[in-house]
Amino acid sequence: MYEHEMNKSLYSKDLKPAFSSYKKAIVFESSELFVPYLHVVLLSLLDHVCHGNKYDIIILTHEIDIHDCENLIQLVSKFDNVRLRFFDPTGIVESYIKKSRYKYLDINYYRMALPWILSEYEIVLNLGADIVINKDVNLLLECEEVKNRYLAGVTDLGYLGRLNLDIPIKELDLSAPEGYVNADVLVINLKKIRQDFSKETVMNIWQKYRFRCAEQDAFNVLFDGKIHYLNLRWNLFPERMSSVEHIMLNKPERIKQWREALKEPFIIHYAAYPKPWDYPNVGFGNVWWQYARKSVYYEEIVRRMCLASVKSEYFRKQIWIRRWGDVFFPRGTKRRKVLNLIFPKQSKQRELVKKIYYTFFSNPNKEWNKKFGKY
After folding, report:
1. Radius of gyration (Cα) for the chain, nearest Å?
2. Number of H helices, E strands in the chain
3. Would you say residue 239 lies in a domain?
4. Helix or strand (DSSP H, E) at 188
5. Do residues 362 and 270 share a domain?
6. Which InterPro entries does this one have (predicted)?
7. What is the DSSP letter of 11?
């Protein structure tokens, strides 16, 4: 949908607590593309609500059309203690997006501006759309320790592993790099942030750094030393995903904690890739799909998965540069290690080679290019 065709009649004009004096909310930032996966997350969230608690759910977006809004609202219609609303925060962050020295996704700016977007709220639980919830999330909103901290989150074992691989430990200049938290499950003390920071101070961080992980890095830099750490079960990276490679580079005691958390995850986070909607055999992929089968978007999710499979097969055959690379630089050899040192992941030189390649080669499927971009 183009912006001028959008029907935003179901969007809220302003955001006030849905339950009078209850000033806590659950917040998602979403694009139109992610609506089917957000629908799955909400199904899992609602499956674990407690009738004695209140759930004020807010979706920050500028591109979800009325049809999808109605589908999402329908999910909560039978719950007396759950509200779901949409809000477009573009007017609040637009000036910062335009003047930002480095460009990120709009939703990255939404997260950083939450204390001022939700100016009448005190605490929010901010969640990503690539998760499945196995526990009542109200337990996080009632976390007492966050009252004296800016954030409560889970240590990102994938990032910590990469500190031993390809991320310089001094890159963010954190006082305790081993305390770096993941941003897709965060309890944020909006009231305390507003007390101690101005909006300009927080939002101008986009002018100072070129972040590898956008608002996740920004949160860790801004609130360094003022973060409460949640149990690993509240943001668990499953097995059979790319993140496992980095998790295994952690200290033995952290790996042991991760394996223990795998026995009873509260929130499963399909961080990095592959996502369960592209490859169902990821760890706990069956949990995600048990909710996906209940979604009104089930057929669309399956269609996209088929499209991804076709694309993957096409590129397996067509990306000759990778095939020849495996011939001349076999995996596990010293030659391959030297090549990775010269062209490390996310480095400028590697990105330049990719841009040159995609100047001449692209997926002929126009729908794929529009939806998912070129790989």
Report:
1. 21
2. 19, 9
3. yes
4. strand 181-189
5. no
6. Glyco_trans_8, Glycosyltrans_8_dom-fam, Nucleotide-diphossugar_trans
7. B
Q: pLDDT tens digits for 82-118?
A: 999 999 999 999 999 999 888 899 999 999 999 999 9
User: What's the CA gap between 330 and 322, in Å, rounded?
Assistant: 11
- Statement: residue 2 has pLDDT above 50: no
Q: Considering 269, 289, 309, which residue would you say is the last residue of a domain?
A: 289
In a domain, 298, yes or no: no
Residue 122: both structure tokens together: 């005190």
Question: How many domains, in total, are found in the chain?
Answer: 2
Q: CA 96, CA 74: separation in Å to the nearest integer?
A: 34
- pLDDT interval class at 371 (50, 70, 90): very low
Report the SS3 class of residue 10: coil
Q: What is the pLDDT of residues 213-260, one digit of tens each?
A: 999 999 999 999 999 999 999 999 999 999 999 999 999 999 999 999
- Check: CB of residue 143 under 8 Å from CB of residue 229: no
The boundaries of the domain holding residue 26 are: 3-289
Say how far apart CA 50 and CA 140 lie, in whole Å.
13
Q: Exposure string (b/e) for 135-171, b if CB count within 10 Å is 16 or more?
A: bbbbebbebeebeebbbbbbbbbbbbbbbeeebeeee
Q: Say how far apart CA 66 and CA 329 lie, in whole Å.
A: 51
Q: How far apart are CA 128 and CA 41, in angstroms?
A: 9
Q: Which two tokens stand for residue 43?
A: 């199904």
pLDDT tens, residue by residue, 52-89? 999 999 999 999 999 999 999 999 999 999 999 999 99
- CA atoms of 296 and 311, how far apart (whole Å): 25
SS3 state at 260: helix
More confident residue, 102 or 299: 299
- How many angstroms from the chain centroid is the CA of residue 164? 23
Report the Cα–Cα distance between both ends of the chain, in Å, rounded: 23
- 227 and 332 together in one domain: no
- Give the pairing of strands 267-269 and 55-60: unpaired
Would you list the DSSP string of 67-136? HHHHHHHHHHTT-TTEEEEEE--HHHHHHHHHH-SS---HHHHHHHTHHHHTTT-SEEEEE-SSEEE-S-
